[in-house]
Amino acid sequence: MKVKFTWVLTLLAALTMQFSFAQERAVSGVVTDNSGMPLPGVSVLVKGTKTGTQTDFDGKYSIKALPSQTLIFSYIGMKTQEIVASSTTVNAKLKDDSVELEGVVVTALGIKKEEKKLGYAVSKVSADEITKSGEQNVLQALAGKAAGVQIIGSGGTPGASSKIIIRGTNTITGTSDPLIVVDGIPIDNTTTQTSAGDNPFNANLSGINNSNRALDINPDDIESVAILKGPAAAALYGARAGNGVIIYTTKKGKKGKGLGIDYNTSLGIDKVSQLPARQNKYVQGNYDKAGVPEYITNTPISWGPSAASLGLPTYDNPRNFFQEGITQTNNISIYGGDEKATFRASYGNVTQTGMIPETGLKRNTLRLVGDLKLSDNWKAGASMQYTHTTNTLAQNGSNASGVMLGLMRSPINYDLRSYKDEFGNNTNYFSGYDNPYFTVNENPATSDVNRVLGNIFLSYNHASWLSLTAKGGIDTYSDARKQIYAVSSNGDDLNGIGEVAFNSITNKDYYGDLIASGLLPMQSEWIKINYTAGLNLRSNQYLDVFSRGKGLSVPAVYNLGNATELYASNVEENTISRALFAQVDFDIKDQLFLSGTIRKEWASTYGDNVKSAIFPSGTASWIASNTFDWANFVKLSYGYGEVGIAPAAYRTVSVYTKPFMTDGFTNGLSFPYNGINGMALQGRLSNPDLKPERVLGHDLGLSTKFLNNRLAIDLNLYYKTSKDLLIDVPLPQSSGFAAQYQNAAELVNKGIELEIGYDIFKKSNPFQWNVNLNWAKNENKVTDISGGLPEISIESAFSSIGYYAVKGQPLGSFYGTKWKRDENGQKVIGSNGLAIVADEIGNLGTSAPKWTGGIRNTFSYKRVTLSALFDIRYGGEVYNGTLARLNNIGVSEASADRERTYVIEGVKEDGTPNTKEISAQQYFQKYLGDGGGAAEEAVETVNWVRLRDATISYDFNVKQFPLISAAQISLTGRNLWLNTNYKGVDPETSLTGAGSKINGLDYFNNPGSKSFIMSLRVSF
Fold it and tell me: Does the keyword Transport apply (predicted)?
């Protein structure tokens, strides 16, 4: 009986234990990263079920599970880990997954996504690549680093603007600038030219090349860059994303023990990279009636006799004028944090002196950023940046005070260094030009910018299916500019009376988002659905006040009270927009990913009959390697999206303005006139039907990785149609208006992009060699212009050449005078031996390159790393007006070959070969020069291969220094080598700067630079 009772007790105990093991119970724990810091937002899933949760801000979780079940811990950027829930406490430590970390990108609205799941192309640029460039402008730092992204610099002077074009130009009259976003907040990147209200000309052609405002971002604060190139990627930004989006993510605080300190300093030396070649034999003068060269002063022409024949000394004025530019940078950051809060504070300083004397840039940047966990569900964060940028700029291009104009035209027998007489007045080889030394010393142009960028967010994490975030941002800056033309200066058509001009620009941008997001609870484990929805508000306030005083009574007193003639004008714009948006992402078995977005936007610049616009997108990507369980990674993707470009402000109403009349050469006449003021309706008729320009884009992509992810290939094809483009359509003068701003044109961009990355050796090899290649080709064509117009001027240029949108031709075609040719394409030569200029102007080509590419090689062995980026451009036209004028006045190197006659290749009007000899002066002035010849002769097709940057660095072994965690010294060269067929300055140049729609104009542009930079980085 006792034995039977014992057996019964044993059976009951066994049954009880079996029942308890089969019962679900709470399992909890903490999930940390490899360093032991808690990870919030980690997905915890009971394998084979729909039961799941996420870790809180402390990395803690709690979930119900059977002891026999397995918990799956997954987090973006970490290797997924599976642990059996055999205990009620299960802690997990997730390791970094280098492949996953490289695959995480920041997309629209600051949403982080795995790149492998995207249905569109995104190019990434790391902080290390930004640093290696040595550039102070974060846009210029992107040059050559991403397929389909073209950077156009405007000269090597401190603070010179940089224009960026992504996948071709999408608009005719609007800006081509992409939207710049910093930590989720769009910021201003305009390049504003100072222009008086009575200036009838294109202010971009002369004067100062001002900075684009992305210059105010400190490159050392950048953590990473994501470039959203197509409409499918950028659709959530609506009417601000027609030209793509560049997302800069800044460095944040880090959790760890104690404070971290990073310090770096660098010293750079800038030199002129390339100048037009000049002859050094013949002096100032011209031929007499007998054809004999004679020495003549006060002329810009150098067709005189040789210096040797007269015993005159010669001077290399360009070599004497330019100096070595010096750039000093210092950056320090302090960071730290724990599971409750993180912070980072940084200060950056740049002091730069230019290659052009008296030019320079100073920038001081202070940035604070922090995150604070208020509770298990609430989190807040904010950042603030203050930047003070001062700049002294040089007169540029088509301008009697232009530095390069007076310098490059100078005869070899005149020493420009004697630039003032005993009374302090301008002296020069020709009285119509300012001596370049006088310009830089007596005609300074300065800019003083104070800028504040700030954003704040508050988030509430209710559950995995609902997270709410409210964020707001402000971007405000003031730019105080001052331009001086000293008494005796020829600048600004003054005839030496002197001028002081002030320009005050104030811009304020306010931005706000309210966003809800989450993972929808599903009854099936093979599909995951994430959603994002919210609303956006934006307001912009812009004020430009210009004041000028001419006729200075007392020299060197630059105050409006010292002026005889006063003038003032101002421009004010206020715009506002609001939008609703939503995004839904489907993840089907980690193989097929579908995404759709929509944005409905209202804006004050839309017409009253339109009011709003809708911007949709849809993408799909299929990871074929997951479906078929291939060892290599293969993904196919397709995306379609629509984005826009908003109309200019106040075009929905007819406004009053001060009328003016000009002859095309002088500033003409305007009100007030003889003390009488006047206003009239502007020549542009209002349009209540205005709607945003629309860019509709298709993206098709193939992404692959082979050889254990050592070889990565990304191929993308795209086709974009830009519709409803805004242009000024001419109206009958009988209407009382000259034109109406209408949605009235269309163009197409199509292209191909290729990016390849290859690690030559396995990671285990002590010697590493990585190759990254990008290549892109874009074709652009204007397909329609309404109103029966064959072409329209994009922006006024010179009388002999313009920049046009022509139906059936690429956008931005140079249109100008051409040579008359026969049916075989040969030039027709007149009886005087000179080529005949055709009666009608024609297409001279487009400034856009046929293709671009970049190749970066990175070598590393132990503590030494060597990296070099080659930047390649093939094709595209540049108008070399500089060389045409130097040929005309006998200063070009080729014009030294003048003691013989020339025969222009071509046929006579009767079709026989030309044999008529002409003088060298006729040949260089009227054929190769701009003395009556065709602009066609000055248009050059440009190719280049340049060593964009090369860096060698050494990482010190700091183990014996307990206070130092890392130290590196590096030497960088920028633009050290340039192989080009272009005969002017560095062909990466733009007379009109980033604020202009014109590319490829070179008319005495300031030169580019090559730089040597030594840097030291230390971390504590």
Answer: yes
